[in-house]
């Protein structure tokens, strides 16, 4: 599955230069830390949903698609491929990984904290713990950058959601210990 996702991402990316790959799949490509089954391309720029749909349908065999607010989810070659309007400024520059434009590990980490406050999914604390174990960022810097990236959001509330381990029974002990 990893190779299939990677090749699909490499084929998609050149056609959508204003988008970058984000989330757990970007981490999977770099570190092979867990299996992921979808592609999330984010853009800080508003885009025409109708033009995006037409372009994706012209370039790829689209099995289905769904419009959800500011994003469009496609099913391409059995894979969910999402294009999301994400109007928040990244703290670090995007990077190239084997020809694919990806968000930085640090911004994925900040996004995982944010996501944990909006949903309950074990992958958010798992990925956050994995990145923290590698990079060991300081809590003070993370707090500062989180509040810069997500203005008017409380770092403590979002961090509290990430650390609500009872919501994530499948989270391994090493991840819990890393995040404490």
Describe the structure.
The structure is a single chain. With 180 residues, the protein is an alpha+beta fold. The protein folds into two domains: 1-103, Roll (Nuclear Transport Factor 2, Chain: A); 105-180. The chain is 46% helix and 19% strand. The chain has eight helices and seven strands. It has helices at residues 2-12, 23-31, 49-59, 105-116, 123-135, 139-149, 155-162, 173-179; strands spanning 20-22, 38-43, 62-68, 71-76, 79-85, 95-97, 100-102. The strands form two sheets. It has a five-stranded mixed β-sheet. It has a two-stranded antiparallel sheet with strand order 6-7. β4 and β5 (79-85) form a beta hairpin. It is globular. The protein starts with a helix and ends with a helix.
Compute the separation of the termini in Å. 32 Å
The CATH class of the largest domain, by name, is Alpha Beta
Please report the number of helical segments: 8
Overall geometric form: globular
Let me know the CATH homologous superfamily of the largest domain.
JHP933, nucleotidyltransferase-like core domain
Task: Kindly provide the radius of gyration, computed on alpha-carbon positions and rounded to a whole number of angstroms.
Answer: 16 Å
């Amino acid at each position: 599955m990893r190779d299939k996702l990677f090749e699909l991402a490499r084929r998609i990316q050149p056609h959508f230069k204003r988008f970058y790959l984000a989330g757990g799949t970007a981490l999977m490509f770099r570190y092979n830390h867990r299996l992921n089954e979808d592609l999330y391309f984010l853009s800080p720029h508003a885009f025409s949903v109708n033009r995006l749909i037409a372009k994706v349908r012209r370039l790829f065999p689209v099995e289905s698609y769904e419009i959800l607010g500011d994003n469009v989810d496609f099913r391409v070659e059995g894979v969910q491929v999402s294009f999301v309007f994400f109007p928040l400024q990244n703290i670090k520059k995007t990077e190239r990984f084997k020809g694919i434009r990806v968000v930085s590990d640090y911004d994925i980490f900040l996004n995982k904290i944010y996501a944990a406050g909006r949903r309950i999914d074990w992958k958010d604390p798992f990925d956050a713990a994995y990145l923290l174990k590698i990079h060991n960022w300081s809590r003070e810097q993370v707090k500062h950058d989180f509040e810069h990236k997500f203005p008017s959001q409380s770092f403590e509330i979002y961090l509290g959601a990430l650390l609500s381990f009872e919501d994530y029974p499948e989270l391994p002990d090493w991840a819990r210990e890393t995040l404490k």
